[in-house]
């Protein structure tokens, strides 16, 4: 018993793990803030020219720089800029005549609905499909599902979305070809959500199913599976109680690490279907050179990615006690 970790020691190791991962996430966010601040000052003509437009005269630019402290040294500007960020002030869009934080507050819930629904559906479908492929590995069913997964995983989201529009909105008009409108509640426009959600779900589903299959195949050859079978447990019980529980551990990390890809897919999907979310907001800002909106969106996405990765690591450590003692 002396060689086993005590409960108190396990808790202290877990606490150190949490502190270490939180500190690493803070360092990454600090690096992201430096990059975004550098991009802000690397804009053509500086921040004032980017905000006021190319026709602004030197007097207006000078007044803008003086008003927002852009004549001060860069370290002082960075500290002031960070103070604005920490209070939720992400800048102001002169093209839309609205603060960036209010624009994001309007559009982020719609993107969360799209991304969250697609991710949940991908997990609900992908886990059983991956498990079925592992059980039927090297059979016809496995080859067919593997081929389909490779097709969807390698297919660009805009191309898959166009196929769905052509098939299910034009050839067989079952669903609208555009997403819901921002003026009406999204929950009242479910038919308009089908094609955008399906596009993002199919791509994410292919990723999850492949990882689940690989993880289940790896666990099926472990000693604990043979031990459980020798005790007379049924195959279904072994898969459901023992194999699937261990096979899902890598998927926890995968959900967090796949967040950047899901968000980038959401940007393309929202632009294609004219879905009123954060991705479409960024796309329109890029078309009109609305740099405050673009940089504000980059900051929010970067924070979401870092926090998603941190949450995945913490959940993995809680699910697998071996991580705490490494």
What does this structure look like?
With 326 residues, this protein is an all-alpha fold. It has 2 domains: 11-98, no CATH class; 107-325, MetI-like fold, CATH 1.10.3720. Helices cover 75% and strands 1% of the residues. The protein contains 14 helices and 2 strands, in the order ααααββαααααααααα. It has helices at residues 7-41, 46-52, 58-67, 74-86, 100-135, 140-154, 157-171, 190-220, 223-230, 235-247, 249-257, 259-273, 278-287, 291-319, and strands at residues 92-93, 98-99. Strands 1-2 form a two-stranded antiparallel ribbon. A hairpin with a 4-residue loop joins strand 1 and strand 2 (98-99). Helix 8 crosses helix 10 (235-247) and helix 13 (278-287) runs antiparallel to helix 14 (291-319). The longest helix has 36 residues, at 100-135. The radius of gyration is 24 Å and the shape is flat. It starts with 6 loop residues before the first helix and ends in a 7-residue tail after the last helix. The model is unreliable at 1-5 (pLDDT under 50).
């Amino acid at each position: 018993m002396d060689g086993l970790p005590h409960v108190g020691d396990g808790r202290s190791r877990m606490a150190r793990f949490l502190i270490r991962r939180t500190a690493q996430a803070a360092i990454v966010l600090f690096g992201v803030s430096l990059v975004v601040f550098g991009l802000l000052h690397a804009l053509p003509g500086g921040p004032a020219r980017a905000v006021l437009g190319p026709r602004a005269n030197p007097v207006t630019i000078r007044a803008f720089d003086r008003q927002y402290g852009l004549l001060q040294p860069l370290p002082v500007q960075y500290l002031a800029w960070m103070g604005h960020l920490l209070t939720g002030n992400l800048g102001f869009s002169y093209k839309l005549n609205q603060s960036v934080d209010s624009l994001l507050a309007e559009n982020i819930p719609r993107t969360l609905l799209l991304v969250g629904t697609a991710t949940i559906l991908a997990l609900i479908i992908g886990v059983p499909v991956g498990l079925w492929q592992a059980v039927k590995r090297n059979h016809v069913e496995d080859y067919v599902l593997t081929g389909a997964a490779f097709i969807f995983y390698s297919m660009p989201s805009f191309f898959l979305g166009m196929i769905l529009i052509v098939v299910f909105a034009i050839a067989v008009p079952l669903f609208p070809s555009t997403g819901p409108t921002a003026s009406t509640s999204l929950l009242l426009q479910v038919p308009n959500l089908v094609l955008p959600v399906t596009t993002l779900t199919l791509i994410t589903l292919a990723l999850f199913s492949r990882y689940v299959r690989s993880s289940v195949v790896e666990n099926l050859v472990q000693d604990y599976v043979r031990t459980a079978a020798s005790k007379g447990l049924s195959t279904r019980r072994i898969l459901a109680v023992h194999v699937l529980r261990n096979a899902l551990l890598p998927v926890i990390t995968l959900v967090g690490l796949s967040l950047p890809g899901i968000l980038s897919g959401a940007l393309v999907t929202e632009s294609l279907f004219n879905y009123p979310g954060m991705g479409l907001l960024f796309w329109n800002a890029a078309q009109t050179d609305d740099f405050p909106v673009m940089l504000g969106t980059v900051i929010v996405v970067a924070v979401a990615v870092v926090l998603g990765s941190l949450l995945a690591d913490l959940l993995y450590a809680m699910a697998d006690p071996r991580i705490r003692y490494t």
